[in-house]
């Protein structure tokens, strides 16, 4: 008996403004874990049997939307699936054409994507940096941290980063050009470690970790310091988040601590793309990504973020370009 084969034609419904995508790369980001909680955050929580969605890079196969045509490379919110049909305005509004293809398309999940934009907006707008200031970046080899440290160096700041392995520390000092770096897992006293690296105190702390790290930073901040709260990855898997005991430092040191969402800074998007792409092409910014192949490896890649298994920006390649 010979099995029959059937060709299925993928196309958008007639008369709709839907966009049909073939997904190429998926961005693996810590905030996805927060969407698995029952409490809604800035995005609705994932529901049982719902396809997980996140940032991705795709090629348009068919479109009824006036802004997109077959063959366009795009980035936006897509499902963890081989093909995505975007039918609602939220998803099509979040979709944008990829203007430059002289860099790897996977970079639009990181360097020129949401993490890069987060680093650019968070550092330049939330931190209000000045030349010569002292900057500390936690999770400094990750998708956001690696770019924050380099933006700070380009501004003429003194920059120290921390990471969870000696391999990553070496990367911070050699490839990313930070002034110093340390493995926080080898430090018995984080407060003392930060005092060692910042004897004059910290002007800017770019927060990616939370918990004990934030508690250690606050006493080491200088007067009128700024803390940009981008993420708190150490807290996402805890049933009860850790308390922070040194909050009175916000008063005594006149520290401004501010959380932010990248979507609030869309006015910077074109500036971010043009500036960051130029820096990369000129060799002023380095970038490291950790690519795993196959949609089936996406869950393990997400879990690996929370143990620091990845080196650089974690990406899943769904299909070859």
Automatic annotation (TrEMBL):
Q: Which CDD domains match?
A: double_bond_reductase_like
Pfam families the record matches: ADH_N_2, ADH_zinc_N
Q: Which UniProt keywords apply?
A: Oxidoreductase
Record SUPFAM superfamilies: GroES-like, NAD(P)-binding Rossmann-fold domains
User: Which segments constitute the Enoyl reductase (ER) domain?
Assistant: 3-316
Instruction: List the GO molecular function terms.
Output: 2-alkenal reductase [NAD(P)H] activity
**InterPro entries on file:** ADH-like_C (IPR013149), ADH_N_2 (IPR041694), ER (IPR020843), GroES-like_sf (IPR011032), MDR_fam (IPR045010), NAD(P)-bd_dom_sf (IPR036291)
> What subunit structure does UniProt give?
Homodimer.
Protein known as: NADP-dependent alkenal double bond reductase P1
Organism of this sequence:
Acorus gramineus
Query: Taxonomy-wise, where does this protein's organism fall, top ranks first?
Result: Eukaryota, Viridiplantae, Streptophyta, Embryophyta, Tracheophyta
